[in-house]
Amino acid sequence: MELQVSDRRLLITNTNLVDLKAGLAHLVGVILRDISAQAAQERTHRNDELEALGLAEEERLESLRKAAADIHFD
């Protein structure tokens, strides 16, 4: 069996309807569900990391602003 994506369609080749009915279709569904869940988890983790980096950058910039405000040339 081979899985390919073509024009947003999943093509299942080198198999037949008997194999699919005998459980292969269920197995493909389980695998695709697991891949989707893992991808969603990775996206969430990446978004959390980006948010944390953004907050750290905001804190750094605020610290620089405060430090710059204390400098006077008079």
Q: What do these coordinates show?
A:
It is a single chain. This protein has a two-stranded antiparallel ribbon with strand order 1-2. The chain is rod-shaped, with a radius of gyration of 26 Å. It has one helix and two strands, in the order ββα. It is an alpha+beta fold.
Short synopsis of the structure:
By secondary structure, the chain is α+β, with helices and mostly antiparallel strands. It has one helix at residues 17-69; strands at 2-6, 9-13.
Could you estimate the helical fraction of the residues in percent?
over 70%
Distance between the termini: 78 Å
Number of DSSP-assigned strands: 2
Which strand order spans the largest sheet, edge to edge or round the barrel? Answer: 1-2
By helix and strand content, what is the structural category? alpha+beta
Order of helices and strands: EEH
Q: Based on CA inertia axes, which overall geometry fits?
A: rod-shaped
Largest sheet: 2 strands, antiparallel
Low-confidence stretches: none
Using only C-alpha atoms, the radius of gyration works out to 26 Å
Average pLDDT score: 94
Tag the structure with descriptive keywords:
74 residues; alpha+beta; 1 helix; rod-shaped; two-stranded antiparallel ribbon
Question: What does the secondary structure layout of this molecule look like, with pairings?
Answer:
Layout: E1 2-6, E2 9-13, H1 17-69
Antiparallel strand pairs: 1-2
